[in-house]
């Protein structure tokens, strides 16, 4: 009798404990489930947050880049040969070389870079839209420019010999082919004759072949800074270089003549 009573008591206690444990288990299961949902929500929000931040950063960078580009409201056209570089069939003192096909033959061209060329290009690309306007052939110039600007970040556009005009065997670079307001564009060229159609848009520079002490490019930078954000570059260029003197030089009896039939 006593044993039976004790058995009932123990069984009742076990069932009671089991009930309490089961209730606690259900409680903890609900808490865990709720916590899991909250953690999942936080993770999703965090992930989406990072995605939104990433998108906003890219958008901000893109907008900033476009704003910077808009600030470059003046275009500088640069001549190539004897202004920025000198090319030769001979390897002496060359900085780099490349092979091109000319008149059906393979030729190696050796190129010297004018002193301070990299510094000059880096600086003007910050201030202006930079384009190349050369009387040389595209087959030659394109390969040379791909070495100078392999990632195509410096030169926005390239204009070759087929963009030039020719009168009595003389080359003329008509800046209107660039499609830009003439108040917002200028050219630097070692042959002032080529910009006689736009004398107030042209800046002459000394012809360069090999002089290692030359510093004409770096010397120009201080003046070029005046042109970066002006309404009209022409009066500033005219005042600095003298229109009359440059016209006379351009029409002098012995101007630098560019041969139309040269191979490059």
Percent of residues in helices comes to 40-55%
Q: Give a short account of the largest sheet.
A: 5 strands, parallel
What is the C-level CATH assignment of the largest domain? Alpha Beta
CATH topology of the largest domain: Rossmann fold
CATH superfamily of the largest domain: HAD superfamily/HAD-like
* Whole-number tally of structural domains: 2
- The structural class is alpha/beta
Radius of gyration: 36 Å
- Order of H and E elements: HEEEEHEHEEEEEHHH
Quick description:
InterPro entries: Dullard_phosphatase, FCP1_dom, HAD-like_sf, HAD_sf, TIM50. The protein has 264 residues and is of the alpha/beta class.
Explain this structure.
44% of the residues lie in helices and 17% in strands. It is α/β, with parallel strands linked by helices and 264 residues long. It folds into two domains: 1-71; 73-250, HAD superfamily/HAD-like (Rossmann fold). The strands form three sheets. Strands 6-5-1-9-10 form a five-stranded parallel sheet, with helices on one face. It has a three-stranded antiparallel sheet with strand order 2-4-3, with helices on one face. Helix 2 (117-127) runs parallel beside helix 4. The termini are far apart. Mean pLDDT is 81; it is low at 62-69 and 253-261. GO terms for molecular function: phosphoprotein phosphatase activity.
How do the strands and helices of this protein lay out in sequence?
Layout lengths: L1 H70 L3 E4 L6 E4 L7 E7 L2 E9 L3 H11 L1 E5 L4 H11 L8 E3 L5 E3 L2 E3 L12 E5 L12 E3 L11 H9 L9 H8 L1 H8 L14
Parallel strand pairs: 1-5, 1-9, 5-6, 9-10
Antiparallel strand pairs: 2-4, 3-4, 7-8
Helix pairs in contact: 2-4
